[in-house]
Amino acid sequence: MSAPQGSSEQSSTIDALLQETRRFPPSAEFTANANVRDPSVYQRAKDDPEGFWAEAANRLDWFQRWEKVLEWDAPWAKWYVGGKLNASYNAVDRHVKTWRRNKAAIIWEGEPGDSRVLTYRDLYREVNTFAAVLKELGVSKGDRVAFYMPMIPELAIGLLACARIGAPHTVIFGGFSSEALRDRCNDSGAKLVVTADGGWRRGNVVPLKDTTDAAVAETPTVEHVLVVQRVGPSVREVTMQEGRDIWYHEMAAKVGRKIIEPEPLDSEHPLYIMYTSGTTGKPKGQLHTTGGYLVGASLTHEWIFDLKEDDIYWCTADIGWVTGHSYIVYGPFTNGASVVMYEGAPDFPDKDRFWDIVEKYGVTILYTAPTSIRTFMRWGEQYPAMHDLSTLRVMGTVGEPINPEAWMWYNEHIGHGRAPIVDTWWQTETGMILITPLPGIVATKPGSGTFPFPGIEADILDEAGNPVPVNTGGNLVIKRPWPAMSRTIWGDPERYKRTYWERYPGLYLTGDGARRDEDGYYWLLGRVDDVLNVSGHRIGTMEVESALVSHPAVAEAAVIGASDPLTGQAIVAFVTPRSGQSPNDALQADLREHVVKHIGALARPKKIYFTTELPKTRSAKIMRRLLRDIAEGRVLGDTTTLLDPNIVSQIKEQYESTEG
Known about the structure:
By secondary structure, this protein is an alpha/beta fold. The chain has 2 domains: about 45-425, Rossmann fold (3-Layer(aba) Sandwich), CATH 3.40.50; about 530-660, GMP Synthetase, Chain A, domain 3 (2-Layer Sandwich). About 35% of the residues lie in helices and about 20% in strands. It contains 21 helices and 30 strands. The protein has a 7-stranded mixed sheet with strand order 5-4-17-16-18-19-20, with helices on both faces. Helix 3 (about 40-45) crosses helix 4 and helix 5 packs across helix 6 (about 120-135).
C-alpha cells in the first residue's frame, strides 16, 4: 500500500482519524506486580536478539541443548539447531512432577451445560492413552494426523498425543465443508482422521462424522477414521464403516492405561500444518516446527497476558485456527495455565453466555476478537451488566484491527476500566504474537497494537522499499527472523518464497498495511488488498469502517470497493445497525456525512446497504471478499469458512433487488 498522492485534505483527515488522543497507562499497582515491568527489555532484545531468544528458550525442558540459536539463509530459518525436545513433555509431563499435578489444566463447558475439569495429572493420563491409541492404529513419527472436531477436551488431548510421538497434526475447523476437509487431508497426506459423532452449535448437532464420511471417500492416504463419542447414539446415530472406522472409547479401553514415553525430537521436527482459510485455490499449509514455535508461543503467552499461577485463562477462539493452537493449547499448557474451553455459540441459550462463563469460572484473562466485541455492542450492554465480571484483570483482542469505539466499549462494559487491553497482531504464518502492548509497561491507545514484541523488528515500507514517513500508510514487514515463524508451505517451498519473501528480499512481507504515529505506535489497517483506489487516491477500508462504527447507530460495518466508470472504484458499505436503530434513508444520508466529517469527501460511501449480519468466519473475521463478489456480480467464492452461509445469500438478494 503506497501513500496517497496529491490529496492533502485526505491525508490530514485520515491522520486525524488515526491519531487517537486517549491514552491508558498501566496503573502503578498493575506495573508493580507485572511479569515484565522494566522497559529496558526492548533495547536489550534489540541489541542482542539471539541472546534474547537463547534466554527465552531456557523456559523449556530440553532433552539435548541446542548448539546454535539461529541458522538464517533467507528465507529459510532453523532455530535452536541441534536441540532435542518434545512439545507434549513440556505441556504435560513436567507439570506432573510438581504441585501443578493437581492444578486444573482444562476447564471445559459444553454448549448444553455439561462440564468437565481435567487436572494436569488427568491430562497426562489422557494424552498417554490417546498416544497409545495412535500407535495401535499404526501412526508413527512423521505420519500426519488430521482432526475435524468440536471444541471438546479430546481435541487438545489428541494434539498433544500427536506431538508426543512426533506425528505432525493438521486441524481442520469443524465448520468447514467435506470438500475443504478432503483437500487438506490430501494435501497433507493424512494417514488418520480424528472426528466426533457430532458437536453442539446453537442447540443443534453439527454432523461431523457425516461430513468426514463424504470427505474420506476421496482421500486415498487415510487408513482409519477415529471417532470420539460426543453426543451419543440417543441424540444421533452415525454409520461406522467396518475396517475403517473405530470408536475412540473402545480403542482406549483396549489399550488400557499405557505410558508412552515422549519422543526426543529435533527442534526443527514438524509439529503441525495449519491451512490458511478462505482461498478458492490449492490450500496453503503453513508448516510450524517444534522448538522455536514452543519458545515463541509460551513466552508471548506469559508476558503479554501477564500470566500468574492462579489465573483462569480463556481464549474464545476455536482450536481449528492458529489462535487456538498457540493460545489455547501450546502456549498455555507449556506455561502450566488453567485453560477454559467452551464448545458452543456466544448467544446460546441467550446473548449473555460468554459473561455467564466469565462469572461462573472466575475468568481473569479474556482473549477474544474485535468482531465479537462489535457483536456484543450491537446486542447491548444489558447482557454483560447481568453478570459479575470483576475477576477480569487482563483482556485481549485478536483477528483484525479493532476500531477505537469497540476498544472503548470493551474497556468500559467488560473491563470496567480496571483491566488493561492487549490488542495483538499476528498471523497464521507468524505462529506467535508480533505486535502488542506489554501491559505492565506500555500505555495503550484505543485501536493501536502499540509496539513490536521484544526481539521483533518491524518496519513500514513504500512500494520502492523505503521506510514511509510518520502517519503514512505502507506495507508492514518484519526485518528479522523470529522463532515461531512458519518454515515453509507444506509441499510448496517456492510458493512460500514467492508469497512472503520476494517483494522485499530478506524481509517478511505480511500483506497487511500499517501506519506509525509520532510516538512510534503501530496502527494496523487490515490487508493491503483491502485498499480502495478512488479517483487515484488510496483509502484503507479499515479507515472508512472505523468512521462508520464511530456513529452511535452503527454496530458493525464492512467496506469494499466496487467498479465505477467515473472514479475507478466506488466505496460501498454494508452496515449492521445497533439494537433499536431503524435503517432508513435518513440514517443512510447521516452516515455518509459522518464519514465525510471524519475522513473527507473522497471517502463518502457511494452506497450503503443495511444488513442484520455480516458474513464472518467462525474465527470472527469479516469476509469482505464475498461482499466484493456480490458487488461485482461474480460467482461467489469459497463459503466453507463462514459461520452462517445463509447471510451471504440474503445480502446478495438484497443487493440485486436494490440494483435491479
